[in-house]
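Notes from hallway chat w/ T.B., transcribed later so I don't forget. T.B. wanted the structure written out for a chain they're using in a teaching module, and asked if we could keep both sequence and structure tokens in one place. Agreed to drop them here.
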Amino acid sequence: MLSVPCSHASDDRQMTGTEGTIRFAYALEPPTGAVAEPDVLASLSGWRAVFKRLALLGQDPDRYGGLGFGNLSSRDRQRPDEFVITASQTAATPALVDDDLVRITHSNPARFWVDAMGHQPPSSETLTHAVIYRADPAVGWVFHVHSPDIWQRAVDLALPATAEDVPYGSPAMAGAVADLLGRHPARPIVFTTLGHQDGVFACGASAADTAGALLGLLARVLA
């Protein structure tokens, strides 16, 4: 088992300060089999391909210092306290494979700690995903993308949002997201993180509902 205190590179790094480091502590064990069920991998892979084509997820030398951005996750249907999430710095890979996923077997937002199984470190946004799943048992999927079009219009559209002074991947973000979901019970939901440049989250019961809410909002903004 690999036990890591924090401060490792992640898939959402930005150019300033400590942006892009994994701020929580985690223990990473090698998986004994596949990290995700085949249908879950297929769904994550398909939507990831869509988001990459729309430049909502991926890696671009002209954005965020050329580092990867965006991450996707799915709750385990048989073990609802667990979920699988795309691993750190895998947004640039051409196709998603099982080795690009990490299974989160336990999370403790209070301790800022996660237990994981996989071949690569979990995303820096893992605890935000964990808080969403903890806050609403009906949520089965969480998609985190970077959309300047949505993010820049968040205030105009009165979208649910975490405050500008709440940084990504922090205990404050975990608390802010839990509070936001409590105040906005409708699902699926799309919300922005004003303290994390271009950050947009969508969550819902199914992958199609979650992606549909996100893409529908993008279409509304672009119209």
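Follow-up for T.B.: The chain has one domain: 37-97+122-222. Might be a good example for the class.
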